[in-house]
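Researcher: Let's run the pair from yesterday's discussion. Sequence first, then tokens, for each.
Model: Starting with the first of the pair.
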Amino acid sequence: MTYCLGIKVKEGLVALADTRITAGTNTTVKKKMYVTQKDSYSLFIMTSGLRSVRDKAVHYFEELINEGVVYNKLYKAVNAFGEQIKRVAEEDRANLERSGFKFNLNTIVGGQLKDDAEHKLFLLYSEGNWVELDEGSPYVIIGNSGQGKAILNRVLNEYSTMKQALKAGFLSFDSTRVSNNDVDFPIDIVLYKKDSFSIIEHRYEKKDMEKISEIWADKLKQALDDIPEDWMDKPFEVIDNG
């Protein structure tokens, strides 16, 4: 399973992806983030699904870029990547399904290209269709999303800073990690500030973030202790007098 998160705030974009790949009893570390940038052209791609489908689709898309194809708006690049997913589906879907594998590749694409008025964030489905994230939905998760949504829903909005978004994003990942043994460190992050046309990449190992995880666990325990208990008096009186 995968954990990939993209966040869009007024200030810019924050993205985070775990690197764990599990196949049977084998566990490896593989990058799930593809980044390409040049003058007035910055985008990143994160994927969740079959690794073979992901690698092939990214390779086909990268080939287009290397051959000189230029997109002036991000949605056009998203359309192009969607076409590569459809191309891989035509080539591989039947054989994969005969072997018992479901053809799936969910993708987060973010960035800003020359004629985009602002930074953009898209969710692209296996069928090649997509939706754009807006102010009403500042984040998207693909992969193992269940445990990581609560904190994001509570603290994130379009006016959050990029630092707040990264903190919330890490805590969302950490909540997922402690509940699932197929999501783990290292994690790759991407930062993109609006109109900068410069993507910053960084990798965090477990040892880099252990202290933050400990602080978060302690804060949660303290918050639990701080919750008033008078609302529980009546049912517990029954237990105590029973």
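Model: Moving on to the second of the pair.
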Amino acid sequence: MRIALFVTCLNDTMFPGTGRAVVRLLRRLGHEVEFPAAQTCCGQMHFNTGYRRQVTPLVRSFAETFAPYDAVVTPSASCAAMIRDWHPRIDAGAATAAAKVYELAEFLVDVLGVTDVGAYYPHRVTYHPTCHSLRMLGLGDRPLRLLRQVRGLELVELPDAAECCGFGGTFALKNSAVSAAMGADKAACVRGTGADTLCAADNSCLMHIGGILTRTTGPEVRTVHLAEILASTEEDPS
């Protein structure tokens, strides 16, 4: 397959290591990954804020940029959900490209048919299923199935895992008090697990929860994207 990485705005700007982890992981599994330089925003922030007419050019640009590829892999359940669910509704011509977009765990389990990716991560980890991954993409237990196969990793259940962390993109700005309260509840659940690592499929939620954890408990619990855990090996640890 000809695979492209859709890195997303947030990862490209603030968490480039996550994008590199996706490439490292897929190459280790025997696949080449290309990074189309023309890629830009999927339009989720504009769309959710009400600037829906401004999203159409972004949707068309995405479809054109990724048209040559057999699969498009992204380390963001949030952006994958935006593309798959909304791009075809915004512009019918985007349907073909949107159907080729996969969140990383989906691609590994459903397309490549693997759960053991040869990873090694000797930490106590708890997993937060972000709202888009849980409710829009329906990732189910795919990330957990992958984490259970990581050597050295102790996976512990997160209480009230399905509860939103309160980030919600611009929701955190427009409703900051509610967002902070929801985040504090989630952080308390994370601390209660005794895990030293919180994992998720979206760096946006990890950024929100991680900020609260750092302010309230210090650096005892770190946040790590699923891609970085799966890319980690004894020879090349994350």
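Researcher: Give me one sentence on the second I can quote.
Model: The first strand starts at residue 3 and ends at 5.
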